[in-house]
Amino acid sequence: MKFSGRIKDVNSDFEFLEQSISDDEAQQYYVDWMAKYRKYFRDGSEIKTIIMANRSIRARREIITSAILFEESKVARDNGCISATYFLTYYSLFHAMWSVLFLNSDLNNSISEITHQKLKNLFCDYYTRNNFFDVDMKDYITKHKDMREFFSYNVPFNMIGDAIDFDLIERIVLKCFQLTNLHNSMLAKCSGFLNVTEENIPWIKTYFAVFNGRTRENGKMLEDPSEEHQLIEMLKYGIKIENYEIELSNDWDEMGYAYYLDGKFDEVAVDRVKSNALNLVYKAIRY
């Protein structure tokens, strides 16, 4: 029994994550992280529940971000946009890895602002020592980062480096999505429900802004209606780390409806990318 048999209250399986690890490795990984999460919540601190619930939301949004960037990278490739292709594939990998790190209870809240080098090192230190990935992730990410920089800052006149293996990138992001879903499922089992009170409302709003808000350079918040709705729901129904199967369908309903208003973007093209991204996430997390 690997992960699928241990997470009883989710419909998703973890087939991509389980492909290259043994039953014993899966058991040890699960036991170690469940112990870590139980210890994190042991003192019953409301603040910890509020923080991790908001980090869970951000991790889920990182999955969606990664999926959209991956699908947009294929559109860029098919249209001969070389610089955009390298930019989008790298950031798809970046956000897929970041999604997992948001659910790491060893890491403090500075995880919301992280350098590329630190993200790579943390991800590889925590999640690549147990055969989840069938490539040297540190070397692989470094190469993609280099190509992104080459084509973003000083475009080469001739092709350099290896061709992008889109099948391999897809396998990696799918494994990251399932790893994030696994950790979120464990967190959901170890945490409880928190009622909203006058005393904790300021903390809820503060940490929602830390992990899910957007601030302009002038310090003013840049508001997305979907984020406003998410905060309203938290304040109305209470704080709980929800299984992603429950929340993802709501996310897709909220997405993209204003991208093509007033002719900003082509509606058919936007919907095609959104649909393909949805299918990619669903391939990893069934909901």
Can you describe this structure?
By secondary structure, the chain is mostly helical. 64% of the residues lie in helices and 0% in strands. It has helices at 15-18, 23-41, 46-78, 82-101, 116-127, 137-153, 166-190, 201-212, 225-237, 244-254, 267-284. The two termini are 22 Å apart. The model has no long low-confidence stretch (mean pLDDT 90).
Mean pLDDT: 90
Number of helices: 11
Structure summary, number of beta strands: 0
Low-confidence stretches: none
Q: Note the overall shape.
A: globular
Biggest sheet character: none
How helical, in percent, are the residues?
Answer: 55-70%
Q: What separation lies between the terminal Cα atoms?
A: 22 Å
Q: What structural keywords apply?
A:
single chain; 287 residues; mainly alpha
Kindly summarize this structure in a few lines:
The chain has 287 residues and is mainly α. 64% of the residues lie in helices and 0% in strands. It has a domain at 15-47 and 60-192 and 257-284.
SSE order and pairing:
Elements: H1 15-18, H2 23-41, H3 46-78, H4 82-101, H5 116-127, H6 137-153, H7 166-190, H8 201-212, H9 225-237, H10 244-254, H11 267-284
Helix pairs in contact: 2-7, 3-4, 3-7, 3-8, 3-11, 4-5, 4-6, 4-7, 7-11, 8-9
